[in-house]
């Protein structure tokens, strides 16, 4: 290419760049650039000018795009960092952290501790100064008053201890009296026949022979022998025997406390079973009398546990009263 042609192409390229405002879309066919003025160039010149103009326009658009993209990225980064800072300042429930409040609380606690320490030290100094300012006679007098107070408190303690011991003894005595009263009531109930009784003893069975009737006196002698042998509770058939129990003969048989007794007789006696048995089986005793005189059948069985369940109604005394 001649010097004149290259110079003419550069001019055409400059004019084309200045005359084109927007880059044309890249297609399969290169755009044609028409200069604003000047003679028409040859086809080769137009291709070179169009290529140069297209390259320049592309470079300019990439630079402007990069410049336009950079502020946008910067703004996004700044926004993200602010969001992170805001998130860091939030608690899980969305509220701001109470850092300032905790610091304020710590300061208050520290101040209170300092005031407490200062007050305690001041009190100790006042006590020490109060004793150090006293004279020897005043200290002696204070010591005497303290000893007197100690003696008074010791005396009161001894008095209270004595009262407590008396109360405890009274309570123990009252409990003992109550226990004795309960035991006496049980004993009296067993003797009076108002309470059931159980214990070791003997069971006596007496059967009459044909044509022979055992009189009331023989049964009374049997009961008396058992009492003399130490029987504590006695029952004959359905009658609970007590101190006021009586036996009498009637046309129907033997009456005991208004109850008709019929043979065979069953006598239950609680006490020393061996002594009770010997009282009945002794030679010449009531057992021998019943067998020989009345031809009765008498059997005595010792029992480790014997129950007397029949009871009497409490007796109402018309004249007798307990001693207050």
TrEMBL record:
Residues 1-44, 58-94 are annotated as: Disordered. The chain crosses the membrane at residues 100-122. GO terms for cellular component: plasma membrane. It holds the Pfam family DUF881. Residues 136-184 form a coiled coil. Keywords: Coiled coil, Membrane, Transmembrane, Transmembrane helix. It comes from the Bacteria. Residues 1-10 have a biased composition (Basic residues). The keyword Transmembrane helix applies. Belongs to the UPF0749 family. This is DUF881 domain-containing protein. It comes from Aeriscardovia aeriphila.
């Amino acid at each position: 290419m001649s010097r004149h042609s290259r110079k003419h192409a550069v001019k055409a390229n400059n004019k084309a760049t200045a005359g084109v405002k927007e880059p044309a879309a890249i297609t399969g066919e290169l755009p044609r650039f028409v200069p604003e003025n000047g003679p028409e160039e040859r086809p080769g010149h137009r291709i070179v000018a169009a290529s140069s103009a297209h390259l320049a326009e592309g470079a300019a658009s990439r630079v402007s795009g990069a410049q336009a993209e950079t502020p946008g990225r910067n703004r996004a980064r700044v926004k993200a960092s602010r969001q992170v800072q805001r998130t860091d300042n939030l608690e899980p429930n969305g509220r701001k952290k109470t850092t300032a409040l905790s610091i304020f609380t710590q300061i208050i606690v520290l101040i209170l501790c300092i005031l407490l320490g200062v007050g305690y030290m001041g009190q100790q100094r006042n006590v020490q100064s109060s004793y150090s300012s006293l004279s020897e006679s005043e200290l002696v007098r204070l010591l005497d008053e303290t000893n007197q107070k100690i003696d008074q408190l010791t005396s009161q303690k001894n008095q209270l201890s004595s009262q407590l011991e008396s109360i405890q003894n009274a309570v123990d005595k009252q409990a003992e009296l109550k226990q004795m009263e309960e035991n006496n009531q049980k004993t009296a109930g067993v003797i009076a026949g108002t309470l059931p009784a159980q214990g070791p003893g003997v069971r006596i069975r007496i059967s009459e022979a044909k044509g022979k009737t055992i009189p009331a006196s023989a049964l009374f002698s049997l009961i008396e022998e058992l009492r003399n042998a130490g029987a504590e509770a006695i029952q004959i058939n359905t009658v609970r025997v007590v101190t006021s129990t009586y036996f009498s003969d009637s046309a129907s048989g033997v009456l005991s406390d208004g109850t008709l007794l019929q043979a065979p007789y069953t006598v239950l006696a609680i006490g020393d079973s061996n002594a009770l048995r010997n009282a009945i089986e002794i030679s010449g005793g009531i057992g021998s009398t019943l067998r020989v005189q009345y031809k009765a059948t008498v059997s005595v069985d010792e029992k480790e546990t014997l129950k007397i369940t029949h009871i009497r109604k409490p007796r109402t005394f018309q004249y007798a009263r307990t001693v207050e």
